[in-house]
Amino acid sequence: MEVQGESWLTTKLEPFVDWAQKNSFWPLPFGTACCAIEFMGTVSSHYDMSRFGYEVVRFSPRQSDLMIVAGTITDKMAPVLKRIYDQMPDPKWVVSMGACACSGGFYRAYHVMQGIDEIIPVDIYVPGCPPSPEGLMYGILQIKEKIDRERKASRRGGKRKGEHAA
Amino acid sequence: MTELEARPEALQLPGVQDHPKEVRPRPMSLGERLYLPLLAGMTVTLRHFFQNIFRTRERVTIQYPEERRDYSHRYRGHHILTTRPDGSVRCVACFLCATACPADCIHIEAGEHHDVNVEKYPVVYEIDMLRCVFCGYCVDACPEEAIIMSNNYDMAFYSRSQSIVGKEDLMKPFTFDPGKLGYRPRFPEEEEKRAAMRREAFDLVAAAKAKGEPQSRVAAG
Amino acid sequence: MPPEAAVALDPAAAIAAGFPEGSVVPQEGPGAPTDQPTWVVRREVLRDLCRALRDNPKTRFDLLLDVCGVDYPEREERFESVYHLYSMPRGRRLRLKVPVAEGDARIPSVVPVWKGADWFEREVYDMFGVVFEDHPNLRRILTHDGFQGHALRKDYDPARRWILTEDKIYMPKLVAPPGRSDSMFERMTINIGPSHPAMHGTFRFVAMVDGEEIVASEVEIGYLHRCMEKMSETHTWQQVIPYTDRLNYCSSFINNVAYCRTVEKLLGVEVPPKAVWARTILSEFSRVMDHCVANGSSLVDTGALTNFWYFFQVREEIYGLLEAVCGARLTVSACRIGGLLADLPPDFVARCRRLLEFIPPLIDDVEKLIDKNRIWIDRSVGIAAISGEDAVNWSWTGPCLRASGVAYDVRKAHPYDLYDTVDWQVPVLYGGDTYDRYKVRMLEIRQSLSIIRQLLDRGMPEGPFVVDDPHVALPSKEACYNQMESMIYHFKLIMDGIQVPPGETYLMTEGANGELGFYVVSDGSGKPYRLHVRAPCFPIFSTFSDLMRGHSISDAIATLGGLNVIAGELER
Question: According to the model, what pLDDT value does residue C284 have?
Answer without folding.
Answer: 93
